[in-house]
Amino acid sequence: MIAETVCSAVSAAGLGIAVVTAYRKRFLAAARIAAYSLVPVGLVMTGVVGWAADTAFSPSAWAGFGVLGGAWLLFTTTRAVERRRGGTRQERGGTGEIQVARPEAVAPAASAPSLGQGRGKTSRPAAQPAAKPRGGGAGDDFSDLEAILKKHGI
Question: Where are the alpha helices (DSSP H) in the chain?
């Protein structure tokens, strides 16, 4: 009963604001405000407000929300642990039948730093020179790429 009264009052106030806005020759904004202010009355007339009020004051509904929250917490926790371990047991090569092929790194040394010796006294190992192309005509196709890699010390 109180929820319906509050929704009616909000709608009446919104319609009043819409009238003032229309008086100021802002008809598009007034129509939008009127549309928003009619929503609470529509919710009261459809019974949604009564259902929401009954749900808000129902202990079994709150217990249901608690159970749903616990289920969500379990799902997210297990997913986080699964990601930290590197996938499911089957994907890791455990007792399951499904084996997922892990792609090998294309260039394992690509993540090595390509900067030269810094100001500090620590020395870094020098980068390995780029590999020569094996094919006869393939060297011409990759010469510009090889030049870029040499420029960056890779």
Answer: 2-23, 27-46, 48-56, 59-85, 138-141, 143-151
